[in-house]
């Protein structure tokens, strides 16, 4: 019998180690959970880390209100199945009482930061697990696994702590918190290979299906509560799937026939576009879009 | 052969580390079209004729503005032969702590020099840091070889000088390989260059794909820092009490006799549990849960060790620190030490010497240890802790030094004296340049 771990075994082991470090050192951790593939993977790993005991953290979803129904249905089913506690911070509530203002372009991804930070303060969360991966974007490639945030939730990339060996320093002052990224070292392909290996269920929209979509800024957007095709854009029925799941107003579908996990893996392996480049309008805004949002306290 | 290599870049500012990483990614076709488009656009905006490949890794706004790397970027790529985790580190001396971050888990470092400048102060500093951290293998990439007309003599001179330095730091000759490259033009990075007919060795990628990687030694004695106690208290698992952790060294099997440290109580492993079922054996790097035969008091911070070959349990130790904070370290400082899963209060009782990484000698009894300096200290801990020598085990011989007041990480700590010269002190250098008193010392000695 060989004891050497393969790539997925190594990544799994590292993520489990990170979850247990946080459980051992923090008072009030929380897992950000949207029902998307990275957060579903995160939860799967958390369950494994504490087996046979239940996951000792609640979940938090910052809900833009621009969701895909399938994802919300999936989210609630997973939470119920594992007997977990889910807090939902609705961006709509912040808009309704005037703490936030709808943006002229109607996208709500950037509006998630304030409800996220307010919820962290309100619940006194001191460690916040996110599904961010370094391979997603080059500002994320600079992120530590334990990333200290100020009382204002801000990330200062110039003042990151050294992160040595696998010794994580989670000390923080009152009001500060630490973002923790157990999937830091996973690539998109690792995620899909692991989902296959573990037989993890995902919302259907990650696999090919028929959907009415329209083309905007080179991306196939679906209609929904966030709006529909404008003047000059036409709705067309296409066979698509989603590579990422976020705010419906700025998350694009990709044309794809990949209807099962094997086909998705083959497609991801052959893809010539990054996951975000293919599907996220918010990252195309500027060269430093992600960095700017992260500095403000975004995931 | 191992399917994964973790590597880090090192070398002085502007020697071409990020360009080299960009070149590796580009020539191995690891860059996707939209990322490449963005780099082409940004390069054109800057008025460059050819794409600046360092933009693939210099992902922060201030990095792009200043054209330097500030923090480590982690990149992942694979060839049919191997997968790579690559940490591109900054060369600027001010950001040495980020270089230490990238190198602390590396199995190989690519140390760059500019062929026009050769081995310079920062090259020597980084080589010392790599040797200290125990990075087992080095590549000296003599970069910008295009700017010296692909001159063999220049290359050989630099290679010779560096090898002598690396040997003095404890590297054997076969653990260091020198390669003439141009990160900008791509010579000998992935493709063999026609411009260096005198060079018969491997390209950088060929070397990275074939260099042996030392696996975690399976014959090392078993070490297991307890992270968390799993007690479900559910009807199904009423009496379950498992100790969760990552095997730091060696292997473990049910039936093995173990000692819990620092208490010294003994027991036997009855079961190695995971969410996927029981294991017949677990080895270094695996996250598992151990169940023991006896109901003894074990909590986070304890270390489970094989019985008979245990670490030393002590509250006094000699260690080497790589100081990473602006505030200097002075004797008498009170700090926190995080070792494994245990954090204890500690006092620096003595500053024994400072390592002069330029002369490879030691300076006895310095008044302080300043940012980026390496030195040997004596520490007294508030409680006894089980310690291995760093040279014996990277995972159980390393620790963090933490500032108790603001929680920042002050130093990388290594049990013992991993740098051979610190032990032997070839020549003593007087002149104590760091002896200037300073009034913002870390923490004043206690009452
Ligand atoms: N002619 C020539 N120029 C090079 C070569 N490699 C890098 N350069 C140039 O050297 C400059 C610095 O390159 P970088 O890759 O940013 O250097 P670095 O080592 O990453 O710098 P820091 O990360 O800030 O320490 C850039 O202008 C590069 O285009 C080379 O092989 N030949
Ligand atoms: Mg650089």
Description:
Chain A has nine helices and ten strands. By secondary structure, chain A is an alpha/beta fold. Chain A folds into two domains: 7-189 and 288-296, HUPs (Rossmann fold, 3-Layer(aba) Sandwich); 204-282, no CATH class. In chain A, helix 1 packs across helix 2 (37-50) and helix 6 packs antiparallel against helix 7 (261-270). Chain A is 32% helix and 16% strand. Chain B has three domains: 4-210, Rossmann fold (3-Layer(aba) Sandwich), CATH 3.40.50; 223-306, Elongation Factor Tu (Ef-tu), domain 3; 312-442, Translation factors (Elongation Factor Tu (Ef-tu), domain 3), CATH 2.40.30.10. In chain B, helix 4 (96-103) runs parallel beside helix 5 (121-133). The longest helix of chain B has 17 residues, at 152-168. The termini of chain B are far apart. Mean pLDDT of chain B is 89; it is low at 422-447. Chains A and B meet through helix 1 and helix 2 of A and helix 2, helix 3, strand 2, helix 4 and strand 7 of B. Bound molecules: guanosine-5'-triphosphate and magnesium ion. Magnesium ion is lined by residues 17-18, 54, 69, 88 of chain B.
List keywords for this structure.
heterodimer, A: alpha/beta, Rossmann fold, 6-stranded mixed sheet, 4-stranded antiparallel sheet, 9 helices, B: alpha+beta, Elongation Factor Tu (Ef-tu), domain 3, 6-stranded antiparallel barrel, 8 helices, globular, binds guanosine-5'-triphosphate, binds magnesium ion
